[in-house]
Design goal:
The chain has 4 helices and no strands. It has 73 residues and is mainly alpha-helical. The longest helix is centred in the middle third of the chain and has 17 residues. The protein starts with a helix and ends with a helix.
Length: 73
């Protein structure tokens, strides 16, 4: 699970820049297993807290994630 290692690396940083945030979102878009999605969401809370103030996250990142998860059911 290379994506899991990468998310752990991101959480070790002091701040997350736009490129790293975009990488985080791209990782989430590749996940399909519920267990992986649960882990991703857990990391997401920490990632969000580390975002540099200049990072653009879209209108509402978390609502989009919930919508994507609900589409799977």
């Amino acid at each position: 699970m290379k994506w899991l290692i990468r998310l752990k690396e991101l959480l070790e940083k002091d701040t997350i820049n736009q490129e790293e945030y975009d990488e985080f979102v791209a990782i989430g878009n590749t996940l399909t297993k519920e267990l992986d999605l649960e882990k991703y969401r857990e990391f997401g809370e920490g990632i969000y807290l580390l975002l540099d103030p200049d990072v653009k996250t879209g209108d509402d990142f978390w609502q989009l994630q919930i919508m994507l998860i609900n589409q799977r059911y």
